[in-house]
Amino acid sequence: MSENKQRLEIVTPQGKVFSEEVDFLVAPGAEGELGILPNHAALITSLNIGIMRIEQDGKKFKVFVSGGFLNVRNSKVTVLATAAERTEEIDVARAEAAKQRAEDRIAAGSPDLDLARAELALQRAITRIKAASEK
Ligand code: ATP
Questions:
Q1: Is 83 in the pocket of ligand 1 (CB under 6 A)?
Q2: Average model confidence (pLDDT) for the chain?
């Protein structure tokens, strides 16, 4: 691997959804946006629901992540997430439906509502819609 590259692996319950050499990435770290270049210091952090921005050979693209963990070690960045999709893979109609469901659930406020869960579902849906519209 060239000294100016780092390997990015994104692992979900579906398996390894991404494994390529990239030049730069920005991840939604729990304590703020985290820019990572090759040879970054070793690091482990949790991630928020958000959008990863990746630069590879002069091209830029984005990946939605549902939160999870990020580890950097020896120019290898590993992201563990419940879900991750490249923006072009996002099914916007599905995200719109998920958003509506979550909003209806929150508005109905039934006694057995798990508000934190509904809010996370809403945030995933809103972030997917944003990610897809930004591509
Ligand atoms: P839904 O209610 O539509 O399932 P969700 O936010 O609960 O949305 P997740 O638990 O984040 O879904 O993801 C479950 C699986 O479905 C993952 O593999 C994820 O990549 C995929 N997925 C969920 N929503 C979308 C979408 N809008 N477009 C593409 N893949 C999606």
A1: yes
A2: 95
Measured in whole angstroms, the distance separating CA 88 from the mean position of its chain's CA atoms is: 14
Q: Write the CA distances from 28 to 31, 69, 101, integer angstroms.
A: 8, 10, 25
CA distance 65 to 27: 9
Phi, psi (degrees; rounded to nearest 5) at 39 = 65, 20
- Looking from the CA of residue 84, the nearest atom of ligand 1 is 20
Tokens encoding 93: 């109609």
116-124: average pLDDT: 97
**Digit-coded pLDDT (tens) for 26-51:** 999 999 999 999 999 999 999 999 99
